[in-house]
Amino acid sequence: MERINRNDYIALVCSLLGKGEAVVLTGHRRAGKSCILELLAAELSEKGNVIYIDMENPENADLVTFRELSERIKVAVVEGRSNYVLIDEVQEVEEFEKALRYWVKQDGVDVVVTGSNAAMLSSDIANSFAGRYHRVHVNSLDYKEFLTFYGLEDSDNAFSQYLRWGGLPFLYRIPLEDERTRTEYLGSIYDTIFVKDIVRRKNVRNVSLLDNLARFVADNSGKVFSANSIAKYLKGGEMAVSANTVGEYMDALCDTYMIDRVKRYDIKGKSVFEQQDKYYFEDLGLRNYLCRDKRALDIEKVLEGAVYLKLKRSGYEIYVGQLNGKEIDFVVRRGDEVIYVQVALQVTGEETYERELTSSTLNATRPSERKRSRRSLLSQFGNLKLIKDNYPKYVVTMDPNVGLIHDSGIIACTARQFLLNLDI
């Protein structure tokens, strides 16, 4: 089967080898971890002895415990050569970390594993590795990769397809016009994550509640809410459940890497709030699958999700900003670097004016007045203007008329420009 190389991941993993640390590729199912591991195996086979173990292959069903896994590695290691132990979906082995902790210490042995469940990186396992591992998170395709995989040029239509179908790599093998098969594929991935990674592994009893929570998060992506507020909402729908149970089930959803939790950050006080978070899906297609009857009504949610994924892929630590009661969609940090991002469906509509801008020129009606008004409004992006520092500030929009405008440190650009061209 043809493999399209995701060179940045391959290069990053290779740069981490030979340092006496395990490399752990994480991400939700079918995000492309297995493909990256296979491509890595092909590249490393020219440098040494590759020991490749696919835990989803029935031939490896006998590898149940860490002892059995360690024995398999032992008989395959070649003395005097560089050995690369590559294990796909390692969480299928009980106490796998005990085997890896031993082999990562051995001279001439590098260990790279993939896993789909966040429990494999719990504090207990981190302690077991004693800091001797490096995590590389594999995301679904970003927009630039989407274009490469599908052989498309950047266009309104291509961007629309990305926002609709997301970036699960295998989907490019299904024609864009075959909507039924593509939808069924997304459904099968959700079912696998739901049943195998949550219901079975977590021994979930209230399956209906878990499914309702996943759909609630999908429908409310990018909104601030807490376990307590969800419990009240469900009670109103005649599904009585405690906030503690909701919290546990939300943790289970996030543990699959299908959904990310984003904390709120007080820009003025430089502190993180402990309650009321935002949630985003790691793949737009999976999110849209759960909201497929409402897709035409929530493009702004999808756009905000796409911007979030761009920032995450760029390696930023992401927060929702709060300043004097106003919200900044994203405050992102990477080392000493900070940027602020506000997402607006358009900058020429009244609803967006009320949210992002001052209202001093809302009554402009003629085209020439609207053009001048837009320039004036863009100079007054309200929430971002409240931030009194010199870090970069962006307004990202679907409005094709916005152009690329610099104004007092605020840059207004189209979503396609932001996802493809801005060096952030």
Count of individual helical segments: 17
* Major beta-sheet overview: 8 strands, mixed
* Cα-atom radius of gyration: 23 Å
CATH superfamily of the largest domain: P-loop containing nucleotide triphosphate hydrolases
The side-by-side strand order for the widest beta sheet comes to: 8-7-10-11-12-13-15-14
Helix content: 40-55%
Identify the CATH architecture of the largest domain. 3-Layer(aba) Sandwich
List the helices and strands and how they pair.
Elements: H1 7-16, E1 22-26, H2 33-44, E2 49-54, H3 66-76, E3 83-88, H4 96-103, E4 109-115, H5 123-129, E5 133-137, H6 143-150, H7 156-165, H8 179-200, H9 207-219, H10 227-236, H11 243-255, E6 259-262, E7 264-266, E8 271-272, E9 278-281, H12 284-290, H13 299-313, E10 317-323, E11 326-334, E12 337-344, H14 350-356, H15 367-378, H16 382-385, E13 393-397, E14 405-407, E15 410-414, H17 415-420
Parallel strand pairs: 1-4, 1-5, 2-3, 3-4, 7-10, 12-13, 13-15
Antiparallel strand pairs: 6-9, 7-8, 10-11, 11-12, 14-15
